[in-house]
Amino acid sequence: MGQHLRTIRFFRTLGLGFALIFLAAGFKPRPAFGLETVALKQYQQLAIPVPNPMAISSLPHGKTYQVTHPHFILQFFFNGKNVMGFIFKRNKNFPIYLRWCFFKSCEPSSYDYKSAIAENYSPPFDQNFFEVTFPPQIQYQFQGLEFSSWN
């Protein structure tokens, strides 16, 4: 029984010694929480905000653009022919359409081409990628783009 008590005292003394060494060295124990600390910083916007509708000729080449609409927020890249993008926020009650405009001002024309990006309650939803390819049967160039939630 005496050997057992000496062993217990030895380990208590050893533990107390380590605790004093850590405190003397400036070691501060961190509290153990289930959540991590998060810093909320303001970052610069990576996409260029553009008006909706927009003239294609006014878009700088090789950049990403952001369209903010009451029913959706999306960012897209235009390579001269195709539109590729990412839907950040979307109201699923409304569809998202892209209209390739014959005129820069996007005034209605019989030469306009409309394409559906997303229908009501159909994918792509929030946080999803989309792509709209240039219509292959059309032999002329468009001057503007418009994203909308009406047909």
Task: Give a short overview.
It is built from one helix and nine strands, in the order αβββββββββ. With 151 residues, the chain is α+β, with helices and mostly antiparallel strands.
Characteristic terms for this protein:
single chain, 151 residues, alpha+beta, Immunoglobulin-like, 1 helix, 9 strands, rod-shaped
How does this structure look, described?
With 151 residues, the protein is an alpha+beta fold. It has a domain at 48-148: Sandwich (Immunoglobulin-like). Helices cover 15% and strands 31% of the residues. The protein is built from one helix and nine strands; from the N terminus they run H-E-E-E-E-E-E-E-E-E. The strands form two sheets. It has a five-stranded mixed sheet with strand order 1-3-4-5-8, with no helix packed on it. It has a four-stranded antiparallel sheet with strand order 2-9-6-7, with no helix packed on it. Strand 4 and strand 5 (83-90) form a beta hairpin. The termini are far apart.
